Give the backbone structure.
Amino acid sequence: MKVALDTLGCKLNQAETERLSRQLLEAGHCLVPSTTKADIYILNTCTVTHSADSKSRHWLRLAHRRNLEARLVVTGCYAQRKPDELARIAGVSLVVGNNEKPRLLSLLQDTGCLVSPTSTNGHLLTPIKPRRTRTFIKIQDGCSHFCAYCIVPRVRRQEKSQPADHTVAEIKQRVSEGYQEIVLTGTKIGDYRDNGLNLKGLLERILTETDVPRLRLSSLQPQEISPELLKVWQNSRLCPHFHLSLQSGSDQILQRMRRSYSTVDYHRVVRLIRDVVPDAAITTDIIVGFPGETEKQFAESNEFCHKLRFARIHIFSFSPRPGTEANQMLDQLGAEVKRERSQKMLALAQESAESFQKQFLGQLIPVLWEMKSDGIWSGLTSNYIKVYGKSNEDLTNKLLSVKLIKTKGDGMWGENIGFSRSLANTPNKEYNIVNVANSEGLPAD
């Protein structure tokens, strides 16, 4: 059967969709773009904001119009939270929440949504070739910490970690298929545990037992960073990129959000990272317009972000979610206030990103080249700088160095691509990693 899959939301959703794609291919089905006519459309949904819900409904209606006879299948966080609402959309045949998502393929077969093709004897009809240069692997799921604004613990509450043996085997398989970068993802990967093995132990196993050129973590919580964990970054294959969700730079708002740290705690962690991995990119999320956020508190948040010089800031206007504590708060802010504050924070984010990038002007840095558009190639450095450049060669999925010569929009412009050949032939010390063997806790303010 022709199957179209699409994903909305986080990297964890992307990892789950990738896994399902492989299962479908192994079962002998044909994957087609979601913009074409298919026999079955599968959407892995997000429900973090009202906008995410709206995008899911829009996607499903478009799919139904493409093929009125096709079966529509909805899974993910929106499906977990509001299955009946989604089931009422025209064409939807099956709604599968997160709890049942690991069994999705068998559910599709059992309900008749998916008709098994001729047996493939357990082999792929065609080898899987990387459509991207990076691939996502889920190592953990679930969160039991109920932040006031967040719906995720209500739709992904059951905490569990994938066995380390499975993760190592999965990474070896992806590397054998040609992927150059593996991104480890989960709801709260800092809570990873497998028979006494924590996240640090898992990273050490991966770096020892696999040949993955680049290993990146999707996100961590500030309280999960320790000198012991940071020792692993002495291996240059582990990307010097830390995504640490801040959410607000005001201590009063952080308390109302029920976050587990103060701005002092967060700042100490950032200083520790920069002491150990000086060239690391530290990226973050910020919510503006949280209920009761005053102009003074927003100014505090803006100033704190300015002080920390983030490499990238993802900005979200507060979106009340039914079932969360923040949804019941009385002092909700208007849409215009949220828009104004988003614009101010966006201006700061752009200034901060450019400031981070300028540190690397004139340097020769490896880039994992991903795609070509209008004659211009683009790719990512290991510390998450988007780089653009020109080349007559096919650079897809190649790790080649480039000299960074200027900032360009959301990234930097490079020249002399491949000047120092490949990553394997460049000096091991691509970024400055400080030995932390003798670190003793967080640095003082």
Summary: The first helix runs from residue 11 to 26.
